[in-house]
Design goal:
Elements: E1 10-21, E2 26-34, E3 40-45, E4 58-71, E5 87-96, H1 116-129, E6 142-148, E7 153-156, H2 162-167, E8 173-187, H3 201-222
Parallel strand pairs: 3-8, 4-7
Antiparallel strand pairs: 1-2, 1-4, 2-3, 4-8, 5-6, 5-8, 6-7
Length: 223
């Protein structure tokens, strides 16, 4: 329970287009939203959420990547510029859905331990009350997560990308051209106690390369 708090992406909703509806309600929509100045996300919503009020507004969204091209990052000595269509992601492995919410102080006992029964009750309430129709995942559900360099966490479809996830080690950086994501939940942005923790891929890889050089040097000295 000491894991880094995961933060859903914050995007600017540009356009909402219903693709399945009748005279009573909308069942599915396609959305275009700006993730960064240069990246527009194509989003599929299939839960019939009313989205018109979010057009031209910022929103906090939980996304599942359903269509993307994943590539290894360029070598550290590469002089080629990174394609602006690609997002840098760090694979965090399988994480609990509860990691998107900080542990309430009210569930902590005097000895520092967690009142598990009270925690479960409160987390179920948080999930149910989140956004328009709930958080989009079940409490304690484990899903593969990738965190963008600017600190936002995306779910990855574990069935479509089963092979990629099997061969990717936790902590590995990947480049991804995200073609489509599925909207699992949406909410108006709120002031968070925890801000997104950004990461620098090049800096991390340089530090890793330096640490490996030290390890190899120590092994050489032993012999």
């Amino acid at each position: 329970m000491t894991n880094e708090i995961l933060i859903p992406p914050k995007v600017f909703i540009k356009e909402v287009k219903p693709i399945l509806r009748d005279e009573n309600r909308i069942y599915a929509s396609e959305i275009k939203a700006r993730l960064t100045d240069k990246i527009i996300l194509n989003i599929l919503e299939q839960n019939g959420i009313e989205l018109e009020e979010y057009v031209a507004q910022e929103a906090e969204c939980l996304f599942e990547i359903s269509d993307a091209e994943f590539l290894p990052p360029p070598p550290l000595d590469s002089e080629e510029e990174t394609d602006t269509d690609f997002v840098e992601f760090k694979y965090l492995g399988y994480r609990s859905s509860c990691d998107f919410f900080p542990i309430p102080d009210t569930v902590k006992k005097e000895d520092g331990k967690i009142d598990k029964q009270l925690y479960r009750m409160l987390i179920e309430e948080q999930f149910a009350q989140y956004g328009e129709t709930g958080f989009g995942l079940k409490p304690f559900e484990r899903q593969p997560v990738m965190k963008s360099a600017n600190g936002f966490s995306f779910i990855v479809n574990k069935y479509l990308y089963k092979d990629l996830l099997k061969r990717t080690r936790k902590g590995t950086w990947l480049m991804a051209k995200v073609n489509k994501v599925e909207l699992l939940s949406i909410a108006k942005p709120s002031k968070r106690k925890h801000e997104p923790i950004t990461a620098d891929r090049v800096e991390e890889q340089q530090q890793y390369a330096a640490s490996m050089k030290v390890k190899r040097h120590k092994r050489f000295l032993i012999f």
